[in-house]
């Protein structure tokens, strides 16, 4: 490209502590590039593109090398998010014509979309449409999701920080329970519809003095309520306090969600779950005579930047830089990836894969990393997650709370 071009970045799906670090990585590389004139951000994902709701990240919002560090440490999405599914262009291509007309109007030649499985579906569709119609726009996906369920990548940015939060919370919940000299059961419900990576991370809470959580249940293994009650009874014979980590998406042997309440499906057809912990709490109340409570971490595990993983933020940043370099080298229809090259010492390399390999594909916890009984995880799984939670991030505080980059541009 002989003339300077503009690039556009958008974010989509659920928030994480690391997604803005990837945004910062793209901006960093774009600022260094001699090919790029303007760096735009789309507010609320692909919907912002459809509505022509773009912001100039450098001139209007003054995102530069001086405040990139603040952006890196700011949780959730600086550009806002959406959950929007593009139609099959063979059925309805109106969205595509609107999107690429906007790209033409703004001289957008690089488009970066940061998100999970469904966002990679958008990248796949847009890049395929551009290639089919000979449109010179390079479309690159940047991975993120706390669920860690993307394929073709060792792990996803956002997962390490969420895992660190979950392990720390389980340890603190255990300390809360241990002070009483009475029998008790604490059930901690953790996000994970079909993939149990987050719940598995609870095993990292185990220390030399505390072996909580004492039971771990993932959606990859069929869940039996009768076996669950027996597991709890056996644990109560060994100790006064039983701490349990359970995925929201556990299913019975027939594949039906244990969740007490299903609140329908989202735009991509995913079941929206609620109430698994409360259901199990009532089950134990009705079968075992002891104190029992359920704790739903819910959105708290997504954006806890005060306890984020340095490793997680650093890798997210590098993936953002890698994504820009892919576009700048003429690539399109790719997702930036990382591959673990060593566990001790922990090292990774950065690369790419065809986004079609990732879109709408879900990576679950390998069954061999779940115990035969289905109520715990193996050492291999712990060893896999452990490096991802390493390192702390020093935050700047104002009046006693973290000082993040303002997102008042999202207030409508």
Automatic annotation (TrEMBL):
Non-allosteric. Residues 7-325 form the Phosphofructokinase domain. It catalyses: beta-D-fructose 6-phosphate + diphosphate = beta-D-fructose 1,6-bisphosphate + phosphate + H(+). The active site is at 147 (proton acceptor). Its EC number is 2.7.1.90. One of its GO terms (molecular function) is diphosphate-fructose-6-phosphate 1-phosphotransferase activity. Its cofactor is Mg(2+). GO terms for cellular component: cytoplasm. Its main location: cytoplasm. InterPro entries: ATP_PFK, PFKA, Phosphofructokinase_dom, PKF_sf, PPi-PFK. The keyword Cytoplasm applies. The record marks 118 as: Important for catalytic activity and substrate specificity. It is found in: Cytoplasm. PANTHER family: ATP-DEPENDENT 6-PHOSPHOFRUCTOKINASE 1 (PTHR45770). Homodimer. This is Pyrophosphate--fructose 6-phosphate 1-phosphotransferase. The gene is pfp.
């Amino acid at each position: 490209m002989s003339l300077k071009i503009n690039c556009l970045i958008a974010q989509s799906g659920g928030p994480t502590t690391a997604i803005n670090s990837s945004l910062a990585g793209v901006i960093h590389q774009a600022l260094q590039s001699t090919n790029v004139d303007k760096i735009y951000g789309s507010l609320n994902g692909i919907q912002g593109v459809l509505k022509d709701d773009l912001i100039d990240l450098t001139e209007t919002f003054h995102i530069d090398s001086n405040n990139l560090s603040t952006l890196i440490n700011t949780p959730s999405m600086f550009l806002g998010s959406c959950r929007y599914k593009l139609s099959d262009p063979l059925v309805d291509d109106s969205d595509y014509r609107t999107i690429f007309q906007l790209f033409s109007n703004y001289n957008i030649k690089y488009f970066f979309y940061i998100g999970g499985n469904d966002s990679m579906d958008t990248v796949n569709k847009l890049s395929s449409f551009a290639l089919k119609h000979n449109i010179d726009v390079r479309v690159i996906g940047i991975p993120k999701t706390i669920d860690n369920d993307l394929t073709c990548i060792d792990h996803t940015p956002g997962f390490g920080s969420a895992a660190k939060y979950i392990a720390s919370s389980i340890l603190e919940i255990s300390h809360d329970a241990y002070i009483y000299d009475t029998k008790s059961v604490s059930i901690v419900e953790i996000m994970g519809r079909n993939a149990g990576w987050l719940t598995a991370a609870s095993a990292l809470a185990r220390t030399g003095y505390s072996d909580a959580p004492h039971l771990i249940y993932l959606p990859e293994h069929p869940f039996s309520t009768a076996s669950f009650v027996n597991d709890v009874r056996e644990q109560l014979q060994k100790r006064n306090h039983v701490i349990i980590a359970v995925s929201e998406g556990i299913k019975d042997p027939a594949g039906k969600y244990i969740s007490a309440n299903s609140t329908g499906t989202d735009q991509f057809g995913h079941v929206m779950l609620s109430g698994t912990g409360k259901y199990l709490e009532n089950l134990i109340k009705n079968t075992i005579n002891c104190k029992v409570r359920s704790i739903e971490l819910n959105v708290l595990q997504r954006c806890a930047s005060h306890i984020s993983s340095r490793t997680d933020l650093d890798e997210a940043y590098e993936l953002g830089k890698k994504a820009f370099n892919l576009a700048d080298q003429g690539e399109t229809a790719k997702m930036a990836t990382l591959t673990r090259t060593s566990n001790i010492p922990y090292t990774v390399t950065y690369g790419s894969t065809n986004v079609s390999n990732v879109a709408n594909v879900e990576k679950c916890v390998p069954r061999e990393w779940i115990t035969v009984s289905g109520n715990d995880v193996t050492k291999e799984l712990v060893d896999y997650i452990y490096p991802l939670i390493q390192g702390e991030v020093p935050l700047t505080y104002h009046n006693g709370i973290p000082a993040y980059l303002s997102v008042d541009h999202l207030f409508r």
